[in-house]
Each structure stands twice: as structure tokens, then as C-alpha cells.
Amino acid sequence: MPRVNRTFVLSLLIVSGSLFLLFQLYYYRKYVSKPGPQILSRTGHLTASDVQWQTVKTFLALAQHFRLPVFLVDTAALMLLSQDALRQRDWQGGGLHCRFLCTSRPVTSFALHANLWKYEPGFLLAAEEKGFELLELKGEDPRLASLDTLSGEEIPLHFLFRLHGYIIQVVFLYERSGNYLWHGALRLKSNMDRSFAPFKLLDYGHHAGAYDRPDLVLTVLDGLDVRVPRNISRFLSEQRHARFLECRYHDARNFLQLYPDDMSPAAVDFRRNAKSLLHLAAQTLAHLNIPFWLSSGTCLGWFRQCSVISYSHDVDVGIFIIDFRSDIIAAFRDAGLSLKHKFGKVEDSLELSFLSEDIKLDIFFFYEDGDIVWNGGTQAKSGRKFKYVFPRFSLCWTEFLELKVRIPCETLDYVMANYGTSWSVPVRAWDWKSSPSNVQENGVWPPSEWADLVQVY
Ligand SMILES: *[C@@H]1O[C@H](CO)[C@@H](O)[C@H](O)[C@H]1NC(C)=O
């Protein structure tokens, strides 16, 4: 009878399901929730991962005791954790007890919000008592640097704790005025022990870095309470592109002594409006998830004088064409800007200009082509095309007008491509079709396509 069969099969399923659940529970209690590795392996020797786990455990206990809310920023460990979220790793074999923190690298890195660090001799003493050796790396406080003052004050940038050949790196993160977190580069002074740590293997410190404030969660990793970024894949991708360049305040000061800023009301007004336009552009593009960088005159202003060039009349940004989105025009309109012109097309020489009051925001789209990168220009009245060629570059963060913003890391090459070797001398009479060092004639748009490709509003 089919009805009886169905009931029977259902009951069988429920019973076997429950049994399997019980088995899983048992397995979980017995093998998984055990706090950390057994300290001695079967042969009675400490394995490398036992030592690493112990080192991290000792450090975390100290940090907790002294209320230092460090969080895990170790790229290898976070990678294991993010892969684990996608698929359970193989639980067999050596990785059973220390699956995330034992990375087979001799370094584990943590970060600490520097405002939570009070210079605490007790902490360092207690670390010493536990057997840690400490290398403390300091550097100048960039938050005090500006055009008016150059910083002299030293602040802690990195702590390296060493125990049993393992290094715990603590990266100090400082709040900067563009509402982001910054850490300094790790530079060894000549009297320091160059063999203290495998410095080349460190995730942090080869360069300064800039980060958005990460959302953190407290979790249990390998039996230890650890704070980690909530969105690990976002943090890891931020980490890969975190390199930060400070503005060259010293050179900017020298420049401004030679060529003092125009303090006329019109110039002061322009600089203020350019700042709010740049903030608006950054906000709009951030919503669209489109990376951009300072280009042309705005980039030169940052590089040369850490400020806006008063007579430049516009704000220039660059965007890689692969990051183009068709809703960009609507987004800027919603932000209160009006489209002034649209030249070219996605396949060739695209350029957008928006107006905010009387300042222009120029968005140049950049095309990658072998070992060069170029952007296009169009002369509205003639349909003539131009091409501006740059050597390839990567993107770094900087702070400009209280904004965390990208610039080409190879800024000097970029500026020199555009402005030649005399970039450091102000030029007021600038013709975008002939003045740039890197401009090339690039033909004419066919008149039949002008309606589409040469739009002026
Ligand atoms: C994590 O960040 C990525 C990239 O920013 C995003 O695409 C993803 O939706 C985020 N995941 C969660 C769970 O918020």
C-alpha cells in the first residue's frame, strides 16, 4: 500500500536523520570544540604549529589583560579564514587543531587603534616576563605635518614581539583627518638588529598604508578569542591596494616661498569650492564603487604644493575605462551637478565634464595599451582628437584637502609626462591642445558621428 510505504519511509528518514545529527554533535564536541591543539604531539615533541599557536595565545592573553583590543590583520590567516567560509577545509591531517593561526609563516600580524594605546610599561614588562623580546619602531607623526609645520614628534608605528623564533607584529593605526586609518612604513634605524625578524616577510610596513575603519567581530579561532574584520574579503582587497604616499610638505613649502599662494578673495573662493567639488566627486564615485585618481592640474597641485592651483579653474580626475558605468552621468546629476560636455565614446577617448556653480569637474577616462596608458581630448568646434600618453602607473592613496584620495604612485613620472621637466615652474597660459608634453594629434571624429560624440550642453 503506497500510503503505508510513504509513512514508513518518512519515519525511517527522520530516525536516520536524527542519528546523523547526534553523531555530528558528538563529533563536534569530541574533535572540533576542543580548545586549541594538544601541546605535545604523539611523539612528545612540540611541532612548529604548536609553538606558533602557543606564541599567539600568550600574546593574546597579554593584550586582553591590558585591554588592548588588537585585531587580526594577518593576510595568510585571514585568507585561510575566508576560504573556510566558502568551503570547509579538509579537517584531516596536521591542520586539525590550528587551522587558521598556524600559517606556516613565522609571523602573525595584528593591528591596534593607536588611540587605545597608552604607553603602558606594565604591558611591555609583562611581555618580557613571558619571554617576549620587543623591537619598537617609531617614526614621525604625519598628523602634525602640514604646510605650516613639519612634524618632529615621534610616535610608535610597529611593535615586533619575538618568542621562540615567532614574530607577532602589531601595526599601529592612526586616525587621520580624512576620516581614515593610517599606518607608517617600518624603517630600521642603523643601530637596530636587522636579524630580529624576517622583515621581507612582513605584511605591513614596506610602505605606509591607508584603510577605511573596518567593522570588527569577535570570534573564536583555533580555540582563541580573536577580533577579525567582519568582511574579510573586503579587508584583504583593501590591504592589497593600501599603499599610502604623504604629500611632499617640505618641497611644497619651498615652492610656496618662491610662488606664494594667491590670497585674493576670488582665489580663496576657488580653492574652497574646488575642495567641496572634489569631496562631492569622491562621495559620488564611492557610491558607484568606481576608483579614481587626481589627474592633470589637480594632481600637479597636490604633488607640487599640496594644494589646489588657484588659476586652474577646474578639478581633474582620472578613471580607468574598465571601471566605466553607464549610470555615472545620472549619479552626478543626482548629486547636483550638470553635464557640461561629453566627448568620445566608451571605446575611444571618452571624457565627461560636469559643472558645479562655476567650477568644472573634468573626468578623463584612461585606456591601457601595452606599456602605456592614454586618455583622449576632443576640440568641440573642429572635432579634432588628441591623445595624452603616460607611462603605466599603479595607484596609491594620499590625503588631499582632508580627503583620502588616490594618486598615481609614480607621481613624478605622471606629472613629467604631462608637464615636462619644468613642471615645478607655474605656467598660467596653458593650452590643453599644445602645452602638454605628452599630447599627440589623433585625427578627427567623422562629421556624421559628431551628434553622438561631441556633445556640449
Ligand atoms: C564584502 O565586501 C565585498 C566587497 O566590498 C562585497 O561585495 C560583499 O557584498 C561584502 N560581503 C558582505 C557579507 O557584506
UniProtKB/TrEMBL annotation:
Localisation: Membrane
Species of provenance: Monopterus albus
Domain Ribitol-5-phosphate transferase FKTN N-terminal positions: 1-275
CC per GO annotation: Golgi membrane
Membrane topology: Single-pass membrane protein
Keywords in alphabetical order: Membrane, Transmembrane, Transmembrane helix
Segments crossing the lipid bilayer: 7-28
Highest taxon of source: Eukaryota
Protein name: Ribitol-5-phosphate transferase FKTN N-terminal domain-containing protein
UniProt-listed Pfam families: FKTN_N (PF19737)
